[in-house]
Amino acid sequence: xxxxxxxxxxxxxxxxxxxxxxxxxxxxxxxxxxxxxxxxxxxxxxxxxxxxxxxxxxxxxxxxxxxxxxxxxxxxxxxxxxxxxxxxxxxxxxxxxxxxxxxxxxxxxxxxxxxxxxxxxxxxxxxxxxxxxxxxxxxxxxxxxxxxxxxxxxxxxxxxxxxxxxxxxxxxxx
Length: 174
Known about the structure:
The chain is mostly helical and 174 residues long.
């Protein structure tokens, strides 16, 4: 994704880009990189936002439309490189709202297919789920994690990747 955005920036001779990156999905707007971007927008430090795909902003129709309209009303140019779209103006808002609606629908369809697949597997006795009373995370490892993180003033999480067998979203949920 970053390569595609960089290609677009290079093609438009933009050298001084500030990058805001997240590892988690657009289904949730509670992401550190997104929060930093919103702060920069609020402080007036952003005139163009380039995303790989519009659903990276939000896959929720209400959140996506609110965020995008807020940016466009502040005369911030919004570009999606894979869709090759510039969402400025009334037409841009309309197209953006349709694309965010499609992204929300995709998430809903994915969840429905997943539920149907689990139900079918349960019928065949092939899916039992997690055993009652168990958790994915070892409580002692959670305590160790928070102790280490507190020693780092809750700032850096890069050391998580190699140190724990849990994914970053699982750690974020803790």
